[in-house]
Amino acid sequence: MNEQEFVERVQSIGGKVYLVGGAVRDQLRGVEPKDRDYCITGVTEERFLEMFPKSKKVGISFPVFLLRIDGQKCEVAFARREKKSGSGYRGFTVIFDPSVSIEEDLFRRDTTINAIAIELPRGRLIDPFGGAADISAKKIRAVSRHFVEDPVRALRAARQAAEFRFEITPETLIAMNECGRELASEPGDRIVGELQRALSTEKPSIFFRVLERARLLEIIFPELHRLIGKTQPATYHPEGDCFEHAMKIVDDVSAMTEEPMTRFCALVHDLGKGTTPSEMLPHHYGHDKRGLEVLDEWNARTTLPRDWLKAARLVISEHMRAAVIEQPKKIVELLMKVHASNVPIAEFKKIIRADNRGVLPFYLEHAEELIARFLTIGGRNCPPEFVGEEVGNWIRNERIKILSDFKHEEGF
Question: Taking CA atoms, which of 13, 334, 344, 381 is between 20 and 30 Å from 206?
Fold first, then answer.
């Protein structure tokens, strides 16, 4: 079924079809839309199912269906009104009868750039809240006071600012701040979901800076907020305090990789500096060990993806020595530890390179080749007279020899 056929079938049962969401926003931005979502009015759920019996219902509290249109799975939602009746994102009474207009549906949305529709097949733009003008002006603006009724909209607005490089309007920052009262008690998966999407933007630091401007960073990500004002030796960190360093590194690493897990590791690599005693500043001795404790606190409050947590523990514990160790035994141990982890060595190198001002020691520059050579040595190669711990010692010593030979070959 193509889009024209879908629209004609909805019209045949007295309904109207509108293109909504990111497809409209992206079209107005001059960007190729990734997907197409639809909103329909004037139709009951029963009539819709009679017309589209193969559709799959995915909405729980209101009708949302998946339909294959033009070869893609598309969401088709019924226009709805919402009334706040409790706390959090579940605290809404939803009305989705055929009398609900597209304008009423757009009114319940978060920001004006998402509250625009295109009537099909006419192509008429429906923009009751000035979203097109805000797109042209590169502004993120709350549609109405209803913005504060779902507290995660504050995170969504900050993420939109990072994703589109738009500026948050002053009144929207105020509305975001008001979300703080409920935001702290929102389910962790909603918080992590927006964090994941923010870390997928080109410059994630914008997300965290906007939250700080809205005075929400301390509520949602207190581990990052504690980095603010923690001084560092200016010789090594001309960018400023520990928060500025974290923002720089997450952006620098994001320029090198699109992998959200790597970006998260970059974000939290110095998390322990937020707990450095004031009398120790500007130094941060032991922040790698403290960082593991802070990461565990974060995970206890808001469960992090398991692979992120495992990877971040490796990066936090090893990032300090990764660029400076000299003992061959330690170098071999580090490379094999990273190899055995869930962090690809290429991704680990990006974090260390960014944190070390663009420089890597020889053993990281050539880590892939060294690890490949190390892996040629194992227990199967060991002389038969060695047993127990002797086997492990022999493997380690042989790998140290490989490292020494490599240094000689490359002139290090």
Answer: 344
The per-residue pLDDT for range 386-407, each reduced to its tens digit, is 888 888 999 999 999 999 999 8
Which residue type occupies 71? Answer: G
User: From CA 221, how far away is CA 208, in angstroms rounded?
Assistant: 9
Q: Count other C-beta atoms under 10 Å from residue 255's C-beta.
A: 10
Calpha distance 162→199 (Å, rounded): 9
Catalogue the long-range contacts made by 307-310 (C-beta closer than 8 Å, 24 or more residues apart).
Answer: 307/261, 307/342, 308/260, 308/261, 308/264, 308/265, 310/341, 310/342
pLDDT of 61 strictly over 90: no
Which of the two residues, 412 and 333, has the higher pLDDT score?
Answer: 333
Q: What b/e sequence results for 148-183 when a residue is b if at least 16 CB atoms lie within 10 Å of its CB, and e otherwise?
A: bbbbbbbbbbbbbbbbbebbbbeebbebbbbbbebb
Instruction: Answer whether 274's CB lies under 8 Å from 242's CB.
Output: yes
Question: Do you find a cis peptide bond into 282, omega within 30 degrees of 0?
Answer: yes
pTM: 0.89
C-alpha distances in Å from residue 382, one per residue of 31, 211, 248, 388, 392: 59, 57, 46, 11, 9
Return the pLDDT at 192: 95
Residues in a beta bridge with 76: 38, 65
Query: Six-digit token pair at 179?
Result: 């979300």
CA distance 308 to 306: 5
User: Is 410's pLDDT higher than 90?
Assistant: no
How many other C-beta atoms can be found within 10 angstroms of the C-beta atom of residue 376?
Answer: 10
How far is residue 205's CA from residue 156's CA, in Å, rounded to a whole number?
A: 14
| Measured distance CA(296)–CA(309) in Å, rounded | 9
**Residues 247-267: pLDDT tens digits?**
999 999 999 999 999 999 999
